[in-house]
Design brief:
There is one protein chain. The protein is mainly β. It folds into three domains: 80 residues, no CATH class; 83 residues, Thrombin, subunit H (Beta Barrel); 47 residues, no CATH class. Helices cover 11% and strands 34% of the residues. It has a five-stranded antiparallel beta sheet with strand order 7-8-9-10-11, with no helix packed on it. Strands 3-4-5-6 form a four-stranded antiparallel beta sheet, with no helix packed on it. A hairpin with a 6-residue loop joins strand 12 and strand 13. It comes from Trichostrongylus colubriformis (Black scour worm). This is Coronin-7.
């Protein structure tokens, strides 16, 4: 079974935890911290891709385990601290001519082409019904070939593909639902001396709203009124009016308490005695 060692670099060189995570021996794996979670990507004993998610400090058992398809390549996880999303990539291939274009195969059977400098998605291709196992560009970069677990070899021309969905944005306001507070990576939170001394400062997040742009208005949070289990009391006048209405209707309804079996002939005592 594959083991993961967790170290505290400030306390020593010995691991503070040894975790047995994946049963696929001799296979590569990936480990990634996602906030207060530890994500491990590896293989099962049947060579199927799987991920384990553990809570930092509670190493007894994973809080989530998910198994994918049988494959030779490990799922490569990438974590976005702003949106708290994990992206699982099966394989990727750089463009042979444009050094900033990258084709990636995701775990949802899709292929995406990204521009690395601007971090924008250019194309999204849905052509496989199973996991994409390999990608390859032609020498001139005009065609992209993909092979999937569905036993299909597809050749794409990304230049002729459909544009991916782009969310509509307003220029005069800042939409916080599209741009959440970003992790501060351009300014250190603590010095190396503070970290070695055991400082536990939390990461900082800042809004990306530029100056001179107003924030998009959000609807006010209105607390739901408390529901009372007691029947609301009515004024005396309402009780009086309600009772009058009931009495007026009761006087117009002919009450009949007779039953159909009352007119039927019953069984005599002699017949009951003979039956017993």
């Amino acid at each position: 079974m594959l083991k993961v060692y967790v170290y505290d670099a400030r306390s020593g060189t010995s691991p503070i935890q040894r975790l047995a995570v994946h049963q696929g021996l001799g296979r590569e794996s990936r480990v990634l911290f996602c906030g207060d979670r530890l994500l491990s990507s590896g293989f099962t004993s049947k060579r199927a891709q799987e991920i384990h998610v553990l809570e930092v400090g509670k190493w007894d058992k994973p809080i989530h385990t998910q198994e994918y398809v049988s494959a030779t390549g490990v799922l490569m996880p990438f974590y976005d601290p702003d949106t708290k999303l994990v992206f699982l990539i099966l394989c990727f291939q750089w463009h042979p001519m444009a050094s900033d274009l990258l084709a990636v195969a995701l775990s949802d059977n899709s292929i995406e082409i990204w521009e690395s400098k601007t971090l924008t998605r250019k194309r999204r291709i849905l052509s496989h019904t199973a996991a994409v196992m390999a990608l390859g560009w032609s020498s001139d970069g005009h065609r992209l070939a993909s092979i999937g677990k569905d036993l299909m070899l597809n050749v794409h021309q990304p230049q002729l593909g459909d544009e991916c969905m782009v969310a509509q944005k307003k220029k005069d306001v800042f939409q916080s639902d599209l741009f959440p507070d970003a992790l501060v990576t351009w300014r250190p939170v603590m010095t190396a001396e503070e970290w070695l001394a055991g400082s536990l400062k939390t990461p900082q997040f800042e809004s990306l709203m530029p100056q001179g742009v107003s924030a998009l208005a959000r609807p006010p949070v209105v607390a739901a009124p408390a529901r009372s289990l007691e029947k609301p009391s009515l004024p005396v006048s309402e009780h009086t009016r309600e009772s009058k209405v009931q009495n007026s209707w009761s006087s117009k309804i002919v009450e009949d308490r007779t039953l159909e079996q009352d007119d039927m002939e019953g069984v005599s005592e002699e017949e009951w005695t003979e039956a017993l």
